[in-house]
Amino acid sequence: MNFFRNSHILFLIAFVNFTNAQTFTPAQIDEKIKYNFLLANREKALELSSETYTMSENIGYYNGKAKSLTAKINCYLGLGEQDKALENANQLYNLAKSEEDYYHCIQALIAKTIAYSYLGFFEKATKILEEAKSLSNKIENEDDYNSSMGQIYAAKSEILNLQYDTPQNTIKNDLLSVSYYKKIKDKGKRNEWLSIQYSSLGYTYIDLEDYKTSLYYSRKAYELSKIEKDSINQAFGLYGIANAYMKMNQIDSSIYYYKKAFPLFEKADDIYRLQYIYDDLATLYEKSGDDIIYSYYSKKAKEISDIIRKKEKTETEKISKIILQQEKEEWSQNFYISIAVLVFLSVVSLILTLIFFIKYKSQKHINETNKVNLTDAEEELNHLELKVNDAFNELIELAKSNDSSFLSRFREVYPQFYSNLTNSYPDLTTGQIQFCALLKLNFTTKEIASYSYISVRSVETKKNRLRKRLEIPSEIDLNKWMMDL
Questions:
Q1: If you ran DSSP here, which 8-state letter would residue 455 be given?
Q2: Which residue from 398, 373, 379 is spatially nearest to 451, judged by alpha carbons?
Q3: Is 331 helix (H, G, I), strand (E, B) or coil?
Q4: Per-residue pLDDT tens over the stretch 183-219
């Protein structure tokens, strides 16, 4: 009995060793990677990308390693694990840089842009995207260049969208992205990129309240991804169709397409899109008067929202520490230069001090100097008071111009409000916090609509959703509530 059992174990060990020893050709690895990108189940896709990376490393196949890392990054971005996406993006960038592969360098930079944007670090994301754009001029392959430029403008559109910028600005970048993707000669790659960007176009046209055009592009996205058997992008196309029908108040059609998209996003474990679907289905069933189903979807939306907010908070703290560490390292590199400058300034200061005391020995001159210093101190105090007053005016101007630095500046000017809001309501998104900031500054609905280039109706919708999220009764003025917080 033991003999047979041990023989069985030995056979398994031999089989595993044989399997691990098996090598694959670059063509076989490429086929596995291509299949990986089409997988809806991102956990499986992650496993497969790790396998293809190891296979590529075993035979010294650089392109396989680069593509495998790109696949892993896409999975982590889809799963909302931005810290892991950044870690793999840095690995891809260093690998590609060592091979002077500018295409994959740009892929890494774009991934970092998206990850930082999702976490609300918009200035850093924009800076990285500019680096990617300047690097694109070094790409020699025409298809790689066009796909890189298409992704750069798509990422720019995403940054603007996450900052609640005007849909007019967003659509410009969306259309530029499409124009580059259309130039790609490889039909399969062209279809893949266009299906992704057509979905984005569909969402932007919803913000522009052009629902028929939104429906047109969402359908095109679905059709192209279906041709390429890309299930995850089929899901995005279906979601866009459902969203357009919802805005057109065609409840039954909207519910039908949301329920078609749902299992694909569930399989992909896309918690962000699942939350939107739960939220929208709750709204649709509320409109149709089905209170039981409305309560179910509303509860599910809240549950998944809590998970997302906790996850975002944890990852934001992680990335903040990483950014701080990077800044410390940069400071350390300039440490010796700083010391030299400090010594130089100290010597100059000492010389000037000696000259001063030699020249102004008399008590009269010392007294006069003290008076001058006192006057300077008073002027400095007045200047500081003016700066405090100017801070409010600066915030107003940043808000009016829809400036990307508005929220970070607001946090500096109103730290107590920001702390109270985020501690009391940790589930708020970056966009919702920015919207609360505008209300804190006592902007009216019309002013917010005007400065954000969206309709008054859209602002009212945002207010109603915020009221629900913060559980503020309808009889309480939202602006006053924010000002009292």
A1: -
A2: 398
A3: helix
A4: 999 999 999 999 999 999 999 999 999 999 999 999 9
